[in-house]
Amino acid sequence: MTKEELKNRTKQFALNVFKFLMSLDNCKAVDVISFQLFKSSSSVAANYRAVCRGKSSADFLNKLKIVDEEADESLFWLEFIKGLELKCDNVELEKLIKEADELVAIFSAGIKTVKEKNNIKN
């Protein structure tokens, strides 16, 4: 997958999460969770763009770690929503969980590759 394809994929993930969140019922508790998920999912897309502009291997790696953390946080909030058994489009929720899980796998593998190429132990 090219950088451009991954940029588009992360942006589409953020858009899909936002659309999903717009369909949820409004209440204070759901609003808090929605805000957290919106921030983390949009951060995946925004920070991946920053990864693509990394100035050095160390900069690239640090930014990639942020993207990985935000993707994992998004996965957490999606699983949390699933656990709450809210009225929602469960098919879409499962698609988002799958996509978040795949993004975590992609970014985790990228971190491992960068560390191996640069002989970084930690």
Written overview of the protein:
With 122 residues, the protein is an all-alpha fold. The chain has a single domain (3-117), classed as 23S rRNA-intervening sequence (de novo design (two linked rop proteins)). Helix content is 82%, strand content 0%. The chain contains four helices and no strands. The mean pLDDT is 95. It holds the Pfam family 23S_rRNA_IVP. This is Four helix bundle protein.
Shape: elongated
Q: Summarize model confidence as the mean pLDDT.
A: 95
What is the CA-atom radius of gyration, in angstroms?
15 Å
Number of helices: 4
The computed structural class is mainly alpha
Proper CATH architecture: Up-down Bundle
The CATH homology group name: 23S rRNA-intervening sequence
Please provide the count of β strands: 0
- In angstroms, what separates the terminal alpha carbons? 26 Å
| SS strand fraction | under 5%
Number of domains: 1
Largest sheet: none
Under CATH at level 1, the class stands as: Mainly Alpha
CATH topology: de novo design (two linked rop proteins)
Helix content: over 70%
Run of helices and strands: HHHH
What ranges have pLDDT less than 50 throughout 5 or more consecutive residues? Answer: none
Pfam families: 23S_rRNA_IVP
Organism: Flavobacterium nackdongense
Protein name: Four helix bundle protein
Topology:
Elements lengths: L2 H20 L5 H24 L5 H28 L5 H28 L5
Helix pairs in contact: 1-2, 1-4, 2-3, 3-4
Short description:
It is built from 4 helices and no strands.
